[in-house]
Amino acid sequence: LTVEAGTTLKLQPRADIQVRTNGALALAGTADAPVTVTSAKATPARGGWQGSEGYADSVGPTHVLTPAIVEYGGGDGYGNIRIQNALPTVTGDSIGHSAAYGIHLSGSEYPDRAALLANNYFYDNASGDVNQP
User: Are 113 and 93 in contact (CB under 8 A)?
Assistant: First the structure.
């Protein structure tokens, strides 16, 4: 699934985005027109939607979140973005207002935590910016 530059996805409280076997999500924003993933509520709050989840066997080279604004998620208890045994490209993003972590990493394969912290902007995440097992 490719989401074009300038698009805003507003998700309901129980909604999440899951990228599974042979799947890929490309938030194809630009510096001038990022993709925004946020809560559908008129007054957004932390945990307004579940989170974006990338799992094992997603297609790494085409699983790209850059640049994007991902906020008001984490209703699943993990974070705005959850990466488990996958290697998506996550860079140039603004990730904030999560009810949990900005990014939650798990499993044995995931992007480098230091690179995620250095290459993205994090703000106001209840449990911290990037969790790592």
Answer: no
CB atoms under 10 Å from CB of 1, counted, come to 9
Given a contact cutoff of 8 angstroms between Cβ atoms, the answer to whether 7 and 34 are in contact is no
Alpha-carbon gap, residue 110 to 65, rounded angstroms: 14
Q: Residue 102 phi/psi, 5° resolution?
A: -65, -55
Structure token pair of residue 99:
């009810």
* Cross-strand partners of 123: 96
54 vs 17: CA distance, rounded Å = 8
Q: List the end-to-end C-alpha distance of the chain, in Å, as a whole number.
A: 28
DSSP state of 115: H
Write down the pTM of the prediction: 0.95
Which residue carries 């996805």 as its tokens? Answer: 9
pLDDT digits (tens, 9 = 90+) for 96-129: 999 999 999 999 999 999 999 999 999 999 999 9
Q: CA–CA separation, 44 vs 13, rounded Å?
A: 10
CA-angle at 23, arms to 85 and 33, nearest 5° = 100
DSSP 132: -
